[in-house]
Structure formats: structure tokens, C-alpha cells
Amino acid sequence: MRDAKRTIEICHLYPDLMNLYGDRGNVIALARRAAWHGLTVQLSHVSVGSPVDFRRYDILFIGGGQDREQRIICRDFQEAKGSSLAEAVEDGVVLLAICGGYQLLGEYYQTSTGERLPGIGVLDVYTEAGDGRMIGNVVVESTLAGEPRTLVGFENHSGRTYLGPGVQPLGRVKVGGGNNGQDGTEGAVYRNVIGTYLHGSLLPKNPWLTDYLIARALERRYGSAELRTLDDDIELLAHNAAIRRAMSRPGV
Amino acid sequence: MREIGLRGLLALWAGKIAIRLSRLLGRGGSNLPGRLVRRIDPTLLGKLARQCRGGRIMVTGTNGKTTTAAMIASILGEERVVHNRSGANLITGITAAFVSQAGLLGSVAADYAVVECDEATVPLAAVEVRPDVLVVNNFFRDQLDRYGELEYSVARVRAGIEELAGQATVVLNADDPLVAHLGSSSPQALYYGLESDYPGLEEPQHAADAKFCARCGSPYRYTALYYAHLGKYRCEQCGDERPSPHVFLRDLVRLGPYGSRLEIVVPSGEVLGVELRVPGLYNVYNALAAASVGVALGVPPAQIEEGLGGFSSSFGRMESITIDGVTAFMTLVKNPVGFNEVIRTVLEDDGDKPLVIAINDKFADGTDVSWLWDVDFERLARSEAEIPFVVCSGIRAEDMAVRLKYAGMPPDKLLIRKDLGQALEEALRRTASGTLYLMPTYTAMLEMRELLQRKGYVRHFWEA
CB contact, 8 Å: A25 with chain B? Predict the structure, then answer.
């Protein structure tokens, strides 16, 4: 099979800092599924320090972190990596950012103490800490891959993110707070960048999204993407169980 | 009666009746009785606690609170101790424990109080209980959905220490930078840690929480890493480093799931030889913490040795239960660091290791199951030849199965039985003889015990 020779390079940004709530499960899912699709997977880590040319990677991932860690990343974005990341995004790199990582891709994140951390602005969104955390299981309906599909995850954030005209929402919340608890949106999409509040981990229980990201990455590098049909029985059981669990969330 | 006043007496009796009722209804719950007592007399806990004149000990930190507290009670002598041994560690549970152990006229006969305390409850409990010794074991991420952030737990404990302002000896784990740093708020810190050449980890685990200097934010350099972020660390940037422990482990022989043999050096220079009957490095740390409390209270070394040696498993912590010829080890799993150590300990055992992993997501378990992705199940999967099957159970059984599939466990070894009774039956049917490992989260453990107790295999925990 021709695909067997294809390679996919995944880069996990700041795994030592932005690693709340099992977000590394997303990288595990990407690497596993890429291998099951017959791709050769190369996985690397990048943390604080020297600049990196992100265009050479196929998929970038950045997870959530606490305020302290976000401050460190914010500085590293300003000093070393922000512009390279923005260039890679324009070049079509696939980038998934969760929670704290999502916030820092926007214009700014204002913490509960009023401190304003500048983001790198690749997503036309801004975030401000609000009163009370939005915590619980979430169900989102997304048309990212055409037909409406569900995404399940777990949110835990006090930041309220508001979308500008330069992005599309990842989906509409069926259960949960989403971006800001008001406008019914969850996440933001621009080119091949997805920012979202969904932990869970997100990708293992939403295999269609994992495959969507892998397909986008293959199209960018090879011009085409044909993925195998995998046995997702266990994943779908977990997906459906998470929907049932979310339906029991108070107030649903 | 003189000690607690009329109002206190009323609260005490109401509490005692409520506790009795809740037991008759078959629940060991102490939250409601505790709340009732505090509604009637919010000062009762303080009035009962101050009668324990030999010493009041408070234990906090993410992992090992229940076991450490039980070890301390074992050293001091169970019959001389008031103790919230079922692990109800919020202020209501602590109150209920004192109420249930006080006499009808409000006198407390015990010399000591050993109080396990939730991190966020420390400032309040410190004011009411006024501990002479406060133990902080470790800080790991745990149930983040409940408190938001790890920093918050650390800050609450620090506030408690500041509240006690030099009136208590603070016993701190030197190997955990987040804990050791609390020493800066307390001149009277007694540190414990590992000094043996215990073979550490090859690489930091994903669940490590403090790889960056607590003072300046630069990366720590570890010359030894024992588990999670516990080890010998130093910040090259600002010079912040692990304090030298006053009570330390000199030698260690690990005996798989059956325990460890330890040599502990105390400040007098004496060496304690302890046969610990509970397994894992995490219990070695718990034993060091308990020994340090003994040292702080001036307990003779022989009594510390005896207390630790006589200690067997506390509620749900690697209990062994014999079920129709099968030896089942039941151990609570609640966060990545704890689960990693359970896996490490289980893999030390020879022979087949069939597993039942039961994941619930109720409030007491933590409603977010994302933490499963921080557990190093890849290590388990690498030893899959020794694991004939894993029964995934509980409310989030499917999440557990997905996690194991992505860790590399062959899907045909994964069985999903959401119902705990069915899970146990299935596992026992497939385990004709030998050993079975049960790994439930908190509420799954209560359910599992209930099931086993109905069949007569384990006792009610409040009778234990």
C-alpha cells in the first residue's frame, strides 16, 4: 500500500507545562490512529527556549495549563515561538489547542486578577476570566466534517472566550457551557487550527475528529488522504456513554 | 459535661443519634451528622479536640493521608487515639469522628487525636483542632474539577501553617518540592525523605507536577527521581534545593505486593528496622511520615518500629481478601500518581495478574475522567503477557477500555462489565486460583465492599 510509506510528524508543544486533565491523551490518540492507518509516525516535543520552524511539522498539539504555566508560555510565545507558529498556521499546519492553549492562540487572556496575557492572535478570539467555573460533561454538535456529528468532552474553565468574525465556531453546545456560557458556541476554527475547551481526553472518544485532523495533515503534505476503516467499537461505546453521562448533568 | 457546656451536650447527643441512624440505614456517612452538630454548636469540635492532651496530629496532602494517619494511630496505640479512620476528611467528617468517639457527657478519654484532613479544609481545621503536629505528605493533581487548581491546595495548606504560626511542628516531605517549600512559612519544620540508592525512574512520569522551581520557575535538575516529581532536586538558577531530611530511609528491600523492609534513621542517629506489610514506595513515604510524627512527639524508637510493623492495610489500600480460593488485592485508585505506583507494585508480583478496574465519576471520585490519560497504562500494556484479561467496570467502564486500547493492550483482553457485581463474577469465573487485582475509584470501592460484605468476605469498614 502506498500509504505505508507516508510519514506524519506530530509535535507536542510544552508537554511539561501545558498538560492538565490528561490532554496528552490527544497526542496518544493521534499517534495510535495514524499508525493504525498505516502511517509512519514521528513524535517530538518542544518546550520553552529557542525558536522552532513549525512549518516542518504536520500536526501540532498544545494542551491546557494553569495560570502560572500560561504566563511562562506567553513569554515564550513573545520571545521565541509566536511568529513561527503564526507562519505555520498560514502554511496550513494542523493545530489542535485545548483550554489554556486555545486561550493563548487568541488576542489575549485576561486572568481573574485583571492581568492581561497577550496571545499570538492566530485565532480571532479573546478571553476574559469570569465568575465561577464552567465544569462538567459537554456534548457539542459540529459540522466541521460536513454532516453534523457529535463531540463529547469535559470542560473546566473560568475563562469566557468570545469569537470574532475571523473564526468559525467548532460547534454548538447541546450540553455544557462552551466558549462563554452565553452564545451557545464551543471552540473556534481557522484554516486547520482548532481551539476548544474540551478535555476528556477529547480525541480518543471522538475518533472522527482524530481522523479528520490526520486527513487534513496528509492533504497538506501529500495532496491526498485516504484513511483505512478502523474498528472503533470501543471508542463509540465510550462516546455514547459520555453522551448519556452528559445528559445527567444538573440542569440538563 | 464541664468541657463542652449545655449547648455542646445538645449537639453531641444529636450527633450521636444521627450517626447511629445513618449506620442503621446501612450507610457509613458522617457528612450529615457532622453538619447537624456544627449547626447546633460550631465550637464543639474544638472543645472535644483540646481534651486530647498527649498530642493532636493532623495529616494532609494529596495521597496517603488515610494510610499515614492509620500508621500514626498504630504507633500511638489505637485505643488511645481519636481518629477519623474511614477517611471522611472534611470538617463535617472530622467533627463526626470526635462526636462518635466522645463519651455521653462530652469527655474524650483518648490521649491523642489523629486527624486526616482534606487540603482545602486545613485552615479551618487548624483553627478548631489546633494540632501540635501537622504532616504534609505530597501534592499531586487530584480531583481538579473540585478545587480548580493544584496551586489552590498548596495555598490552603500554607494558610493553615501560617494560622498555626510556630505553635505546631510541621512534618514535611523533603523530596516533594511543593511540600518542602512550605518550610519557608514554618521555622519548626521536620523533614523526611529518601537517602537510599533506590533505583529511581528512567524518565519523569507524565503526572509529575513540579518540574519547575517553586521559587523562580526555572526547571529543576534532578539527581534522583523516585516517583512523580519526588526526588532529589536543585534549581540551577536560584539555588533552591531539597532540604536535608531529619528522618530518612537508609535502606529498602521491596517485596512486591506484600510489603517492604526498611531501615529508617531518626535524628538521634538510631536506626529503625521496619517490616512494612503494605506495598509500594508510596507506603514507604507514608511510613517515614508516621515515624517522623513519632519523633516529633518523643515516642521511643522501639514503639515506632512496633507500630509500623504491626500495621496492616487501611481501608481499601491494598487489602487482601480471600474469595473462594482466589486472593484478591483491593486497592483504591484516585489519581495518576497513585495509580502509577499501584501499577508498579502489581507488576513486581510474579505470575498472572488478572485485573478489574472500576472507574466511577461521581463527585467523590472526581467527575472528570481525563486523569486516566495521565496514568502510565503503557507500562501495563508492555507487560500484557502477564495480564490474561482486564475487566473494565463502573460508570465510565468504556473510557477505561478506550484508555487501555490506546495504551496498546490487545482489545480481545478487554471486557466491559459496567455492573460491579457482574464484573466481579466474570473476573472470579476466569480466575480459578491465584491472585486477582481489584482497582476501584472511591465510590466504586464502597460499592465493591458492599457487594463483598454481603457475601461475607469483608467486614463493614466502621467495624474494621
Answer: yes
